[in-house]
């Protein structure tokens, strides 16, 4: 029975999540499988991969053929490296201790590379956020600066209206005062004949 190591799709629409499985080559992609070897989540950066290294190596040594994508994932996690070392041990090219030491050194180097990539991604993300914050701050300052002249014009207009109202009030007050003075001047002229009438009567007598 030909066996393939391939990806089996899970997850929801737009956010796929894959199982890494060993399955009969004649089975459907998302059908029955012989063994689940790990998971692959491409929705994060870097992608999260969890693989049973020893189980995958055993399937490869037994003749299972990985698909191109599965081969790339297994190589990334060191499965192909370990298969090569195990084959060397079986042939007597190196001891099991030497194979383990080489594999551990390779894994340590790989881990450092992954951590370095995560650090770069985190720095890039922080830089993007800082630039976005600076851009937003600049836009707010520009908005405030453009609104300042409008406020000044409004204050000037209010002051002009208040001055005009004060001038009108002064003019009205002056007019009222002039009217009062005019009334005061006209009052004795109308009362004088009435006061002089008795004297004229006495002279006639």
Contiguous runs where pLDDT drops below 50 for at least 5 residues: none
- What integer is the average pLDDT? 81
Which percent range describes the beta-strand content? 15-25%
What is the overall number of helices?
4
The N- and C-terminal alpha carbons lie at a distance of 163 Å
Largest sheet: 5 strands, mixed
Helix content: 55-70%
Q: Structural class of the helices, strands and pairings?
A: alpha+beta
Order of helices and strands: EEEEHEHHH
Total strand count, please?
5
> Measured on Cα atoms, how large is the radius of gyration?
50 Å
Shape: rod-shaped
> How do the strands of the widest beta sheet line up side by side?
4-3-2-1-5
Task: Walk me through the structure.
The chain is α+β, with helices and mostly antiparallel strands. The chain is 68% helix and 16% strand. The chain is built from four helices and five strands, in the order E-E-E-E-H-E-H-H-H. It has helices at residues 53-61, 68-76, 79-91, 96-204, and strands spanning 3-12, 15-24, 35-41, 48-51, 65-66. A five-stranded mixed β-sheet has the order 4-3-2-1-5. Strand 1 and strand 2 form a beta hairpin. Helix 3 packs antiparallel against helix 4 (96-204). The longest helix has 109 residues, at 96-204. The mean pLDDT is 81.
């Amino acid at each position: 029975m030909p066996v393939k190591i391939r990806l089996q799709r899970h997850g929801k629409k737009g956010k796929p999540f894959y199982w890494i499985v060993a399955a009969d080559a004649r089975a459907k992609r998302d059908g029955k499988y012989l063994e689940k070897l790990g998971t692959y989540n491409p929705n994060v950066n870097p992608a999260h991969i969890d693989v049973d290294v020893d189980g995958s190596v055993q399937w490869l040594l037994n003749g299972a053929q990985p698909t191109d994508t599965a081969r790339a994932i297994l190589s990334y996690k060191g499965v192909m490296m370990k298969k090569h070392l195990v084959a060397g041990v079986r042939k007597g090219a190196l001891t099991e201790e030497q194979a383990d030491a080489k594999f551990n050194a390779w894994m340590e180097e790989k881990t450092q590379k992954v951590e370095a990539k995560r650090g770069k991604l985190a720095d890039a993300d922080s830089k993007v956020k800082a630039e976005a914050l600076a851009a937003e701050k600049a836009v707010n300052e520009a908005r405030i600066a453009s609104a300042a002249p409008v406020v000044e014009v409004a204050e000037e207009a209010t002051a002009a209206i208040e001055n005009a109202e004060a001038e009108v009030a002064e003019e009205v007050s002056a007019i009222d005062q002039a009217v009062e003075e005019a009334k005061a001047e006209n009052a004795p002229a109308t009362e004088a004949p009435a006061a002089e009438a008795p004297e004229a009567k006495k002279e006639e007598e």
